[in-house]
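We treat protein structure as text, and this decision shapes the records that our systems exchange. Such a record has a labelled line for the sequence and another for the backbone structure tokens. The record that follows is passed on verbatim for readers who wish to inspect the format:
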Amino acid sequence: MNAHAAAPSHRFRFHLPTAGALPATFGMAFGAWIGWLEHKHGTSMGWAEVHGLLAAAVMAGLCQLVGALQRSPKAITELKAVAYGSVFGAAVGYGYGSMGATTLAASLKGLIFGTIMGGIAFYLFHTHEPSRRTDAVASASIPPIVLMGTPVGPAQPAAKGALEPSKSAPPDSSSRALPESPEQPGGTRP
């Protein structure tokens, strides 16, 4: 009945992984921008192209390192955000310096934009990434807070095979309680 859906496709599909394509794309765009800035501010076309290619290679390498850090399962969110902010701040500062600004002005501009990018990355990582910390907190046995005899907070299920102490026995007694029988429909016990 669905034989046509199971037929193999013989078309060739070109798949470029984003792990290599995005750093190369960002590097090429950054290199073209630096080359354009250099040529616009009086550098000859040949030197501007060489400078742009070198800037593209460095930026692609930095983006590759940030991508490897992001894919690392042991990297903490704050470190990822600092890496994004540092690379972005360095790129903006270097581009601003290529326009003829002083080193102090370019550094300040890079610091401002890097801090903004780091804050945005930090926010996005914390709101869009599944957090390992919440999993650890959920799996920990946190006792519920009891206010006036009513538990308030996360109720943790008992471990398998654990028996609760008898309600009639004193708390220091080592006797074990029998499990209570389940209620029948209507709220009565058998």
Remarks:
- The beta strands are 145-147, 150-152.
- The chain has six helices and two strands.
- The chain has a mean pLDDT of 77.
